[in-house]
Amino acid sequence: MGNKQAVFTHEQLEAYQDCTFFTRKEIMRLFYRYQDLAPQLVPLDYTSCPDVKVPYELIGSMPELKDNPFRQRIAQVFSEDGDGHMTLDNFLDMFSVMSEMAPRDLKAYYAFKIYDFNNDDYICAWDLEQTVTKLTRGELSAEEVSLICEKVLDEADGDHDGRLSLEDFQNMILRAPDFLSTFHIRI
Amino acid sequence: MSQSPAFVLNVLETPEDPEGQEPSPYDESEVHDSFHQLIQEQSRWVAQEGLELQQRQPETGALGASGSDHENLPGPEGAPVYSMATLRILASMPSRTIGRSRGAIISQYYSRTMKLRRRAGRPQLRDMGRSARPSLRLYDLELDSAVLEEEEKRGLLVKELQGLTAAQRDHMLRGMPLSLAEKRCLREESRPLRGKQRAQRRHGLLSCCDQLRDSCVLASHNLGLALLSGLQALMPWRYALKRIGGRFGSSVLSYFLFLKTLLAFNALLLLPLLAFIVGVQAAFPPAPGGPVPAFTGLELLTGGGHFTHSVMYYGYYSNATLNQPCASPPNGSQCPPEAGSLPYNMPLAYLFTLGAALFITCITLVYSMSRSFGESYRVGSASGVHAITVFCSWDYKVTQRWATRLQHDNIRTQLKELLAEGQLRQRPQSACGRLRRAAVLGIVWLLCLGTTLGCTLAVYTFSERMIESPVSAEREAVLLLLPLVVCLLNLGAPYLFRILATLERHDSPVLEVYVAICRNLILKMVTLGILCYHWLGRRVGTLKDQCWENFVGQELYRLMVMDFIFTLLDTLLGELVWRLFSEKQLKRKGKPEFDIAGNVLELIYGQTLTWLGVLFSPLLPAMQIVKLLLLFYIKKASLMANCQAPRRPWKASHMSTVFVSLLCFPSFLGAAVFLCYAIWQVKPSSICGPFRTLDTMYEAGKVWVRHLEKAGPRVSWLPWVHRYLVEDTFPIYLVSALLLAVIYLNIQVVKGQRKVICLLKEQISNEGEDKIFLINKLQRVYEKKERSRAGRTEEAVTPPALFTDWDAQ
User: Fold this and answer.
1) pTM (global) more than 0.90
2) Which residues in chain A are contacts of B397 at CB distance < 8 A?
3) Is the distance from CB of B265 to CB of B361 less than 8 angstroms?
4) Where is each EF-hand domain found (chain A) (predicted)?
């Protein structure tokens, strides 16, 4: 512990500690998890800030993510170019937001982006259908899915424009105290 | 909306139209100057910045066109078709850019940081145009006269961050929804160099007190981090909890987290007791009263025998002031202490340490309950069940394949049930059906209460039987009979309740769980109440010349041990044997479900026993800690091997609130009432313990206060406080009345907030309708413009229909 590690400089580690919700020890642990994903690709020395991206296929095969129906969206939202390939910064960011210390607003913001499949900054009916289909693994009939989407829009759409904006989503999240405990990945 | 809003820059008479010299439809009307101005502004701005819509593939003008690459995303069908100009304007609407584009995020956080630094509240409403939406006012976006570029905004944000302290800056950075690389850049830029920092500080950006406070905050933050990592090293359960959460979800995890909480409470209770009572008495052991019996194995179960004359029980503690050569008489003068050592008044220490430890526990309980309540209760939360199920029910912690499959199934079932419920609610129930259901409910409740009464009578008669036939020292094992009977009843009756509950049908499964918890709780509390009466009411009388406190302490010890044994039995029978039986005999695939409510009630019951017995056996919390540790590993092993996650939807946070409230109200309150009665009203035994010469245990405090009165005027405020605030009843009435008033005020405030929420919802809905209306109008205007451009010769005059449209509405 302390300064014995040679992966990051002291300033880098401090910067990570200040900008995420992790302690030094956890950051080092996360780095080794990241490195394990692609040992040939990820160097063990980050002092020179190498530009390394782990491809999405490896990220999606992590045990914490591999059975999650939204893993592709999660990787897309947190990656730099929206393609799912993540640098170490993206990786740390992702787990920092999904950790239990992240505040509700931050989680709600990213959850909104995850459920917004077509990236138009609104959750429209189509996004909802995609979400419900992924949640139930396609085992609900089409009319049940559309009925559910209708009800969701009825309940959550405040300004009645037929889709959920970020404010609508945040208002709805406020009413769900379970959100903080379910939108949480332990690593 | 008759006045021009504040976001208009300069009102130009004939604006330069970059798109050409087409006559604008608004030239003739002063009323619509502002819109025209706004549209011009936005078009110019958007044309300069580059259009996000142009980069997208040109769909047929549908809103929300395609975005990402991986999946084939057909856009939403049936959306209204808008022209490019309309879309351009829609793309730069403030509500679309709030919180989304980097520039908007930066300026939002700039204003937040500024407010934090200047500790300003909301901006003055007078300065804002009345037409600006409340959300826009809060965000302070582009309402100021200078429309800032993103780089300028970023520079401003950096400057504001520099003005914050390190802790505040870190807090702000962590909460920003920007990428980590950008946060690091912001952090780099907002950290001034050492010398400059000192110079800035010296110039009084922050006052001296703020500096001190902030350095304290930083130091405590670092200390907190160090403690946290130390604690995590001490309690190596992080991986175990992760496995449990990964396989069974948040609901089962809540049981284990509750167990951890109880461990913390017990440790909190044990530390002062160890330090001030047990440790001190162990260092100054009293003279042994008689021959100490040898250690046989039975002591571990009965708690008597060899353990009777040890620090475990009340009787061991001396009633004298330790470290003094002569015993201090209760109302005489004090002996001079030995040179160089502190006199330690044992009775006082016993009373005060216990009181302080319980008081701290009470405060911690109430605080955690109120915090948990605050997180799970929402003012004005209407039913948003569908939305919450869709967005908040997927547990991201679950990692095993079969567990995720189970989650998929659960969510699908939940959604189907919600749809069915909705259809059912539309069909009203007949009066006959409702009556029948009410009758069944009434009968089941009567049966359950009858069972409870039966168990209570059984315990009462058995305890009376035990009093009538006194037990000699050799047959101590007979003492185990009463705890055995109590535990048997506590084990058997809940199963009976469960069978009876299958008769009634509730609307919601959550209500079933609450009803089951209620019945079990009533049973356990009534049984404990009878036992308390038995100890304080009857045993004190029958054990006149013996140490009744030791006896009560031992009874509670026996109850705890029996409870633990029966919990193990229940785990074995209920989970392991049931799984084997159902797999081999019944050939069913499903494993038994982990009964969360039942197990949590067991924990609460055990904790109540600890609190009841802490007066008579100060080491009981240590026993409880050992028991909880063992329980954690046993329950985890049994869970992993034998159980499956509950199929019903389980609102983990609501249930956690319920558990902590149950821990506070029947459990801790009951124990506190019992202890207060024992301290205030019951005469302590005269041959053992720290209060052996007094009329009540509380008298030790009164004796000390009288000492202080004689001690002189320096400490005379303490007896005054005691006489006028503690012994007098008037202050208590006053405080209760004040408390009731505060509660009433809070209820009224909550009612008011509900009304405000309704009004705001209406307002949002109206604004949404306004927006759609305006968009449609805009679209029609542009269509007309297109048509006029196409067939200019036919449309020489602005159609009067346009004006009648505008004027009429």
Assistant:
1) no
2) 182, 184-186
3) yes
4) 144-179
